[in-house]
Design goal:
Blueprint: H1 2-23, E1 28-40, E2 50-66, E3 70-77, E4 84-86, E5 93-95, E6 101-112, E7 115-123, H2 144-152, E8 159-169, E9 174-183, E10 196-205, E11 210-220, E12 231-243, E13 246-258, E14 262-263, E15 266-275, E16 280-290, E17 299-314, E18 318-331, E19 355-363
Antiparallel strand pairs: 1-2, 1-19, 2-3, 3-6, 4-5, 6-7, 7-8, 8-9, 9-10, 10-11, 11-12, 12-13, 13-14, 13-15, 15-16, 16-17, 17-18, 18-19
């Protein structure tokens, strides 16, 4: 009888205290909306040479279930134009479905300040460019080369699913690391084969505002049941300085793709920003990308300049803002990879002209 009373008391206590525990959970809501306008003189674009377009619409929740021990993050993507398909005959372009979908999410187990175990889907920790939040970018567009190479490594929308161990120290000489074991291909859906990929990213902060690091990733992309070889591996090295009204970054990446023959696409970019006032940011970037397509001169360069007006800034040039970029683009005659295909403004070959991009961004 005594044991039964204890059990009933425990159950009653669980019902009484569970709502209190749930209400104490930490919940932080954030979101991102980006509305763009693009104008270009390209005459082989898949869509109109000038267009308004919803670029991103995201809503996220994050926080701690158990303070400083168990955390979570979940983000929905409601992008009206997340991707495009083109009919091979009619050339008609159709935007993807507008259904809200989970684009990333993970659970954290905070074992130690230098050791947090995560499980879920996140941006593959490779380099600086593509892991960066779209709300925090200096320029309107991600640099083209890293956007392509992260796809060569099997990431979907820059993301992969798996487990990750990460940690960071904020001491006088700071450092951090990320060790990820992920699906060889596929972020929300399952893997395409039984092999897995991995990524390692590590950095040091030798002085205030300076970050220097390197990444390595490798994966097997061959679909299950097929014979042959389809592997990819690559590395990235980077440095960034951000202090007061000055921002500067440089990054180099190379990926080796083995499909029986080997190809080693490379990319590098440098970018800089300067705050004329706390609200006005002048910015510039130079980028190069070489696809290393066999027997072709397949190169792409772009010199990008712009200005941003921070309505409610976050970080150096993120947050709610108005942005204007002018991209002076050039490509080799054999360049065959579409530009900005996922944004509805795409061009191939040497006929890639300059581009004006405007963005109204709201981040909360």
């Amino acid at each position: 009888m005594h044991i039964r009373n204890l059990a009933l008391g425990a159950i009653l206590a669980a019902f009484l205290f569970a709502p209190t525990a749930a209400s104490a959970a930490d919940v932080n809501v954030s979101g991102l909306i980006q509305f763009d306008y693009y104008s270009s003189d390209d005459n082989n674009n898949y869509t109109a040479d000038n267009t308004f377009i919803w670029r991103r619409a995201r809503l996220a929740a994050s926080g701690d279930i158990v303070k400083d021990f168990v955390g979570y993050h979940a983000m929905l993507s409601m992008d009206p134009t997340g991707a495009y398909t083109q009919d091979a005959t009619t050339k008609v372009v159709t935007p993807s479905a507008d259904d809200a979908k989970l684009i990333q999410g993970w659970m954290d187990l905070k074992l130690h300040p230098l050791a947090t175990l995560s499980a879920g889907t996140w941006k593959l920790p490779f380099g600086l460019a593509t892991p960066e939040s779209g709300a925090m970018m200096l320029m309107i567009m991600y640099p083209e080369g890293p956007s392509k190479l992260i796809g060569e490594l099997g990431a979907t929308a820059y993301r992969s699913a798996g487990v990750q161990l990460k940690g960071e120290s904020k001491g006088p000489v700071g450092f951090g690391y990320q060790l990820a074991y992920v699906n060889g291909k596929g972020n929300i859906s399952g893997d395409n084969n039984s092999e897995k990929g991995y990524a390692v990213n590590a950095w040091v902060d030798p002085m205030k505002g300076l970050k220097v690091g390197a990444s390595y990733a490798a994966t097997d992309l061959l679909d299950e049941g097929l014979t042959g070889t389809k592997e990819a591996s690559g590395y990235a090295v980077y440095a960034q300085f951000e202090q007061g009204g000055v921002h500067a970054r440089a990054e180099y990446q190379q990926v080796e793709v083995d499909t029986g023959t080997t190809r080693k696409p490379t990319t590098w970019y440098v970018q800089a920003g300067y705050k004329v006032t706390p609200a006005i940011v002048l910015k510039a970037r130079y980028q190069e990308y070489d696809t290393k397509e066999a027997g072709k001169k397949a190169g792409f360069t772009s010199t990008d300049v712009g200005v941003a007006y921070l309505l409610k800034g976050k970080g150096f040039a993120g947050g709610t803002k108005l942005s204007l970029d002018y991209m002076m683009r050039d490509a080799e005659a054999d360049y065959s990879m579409p530009q900005f295909a996922e944004k509805g403004l795409s061009a191939k070959g040497s006929n890639i002209d300059n581009l004006i991009a405007l963005r109204w961004q709201v981040a909360f």
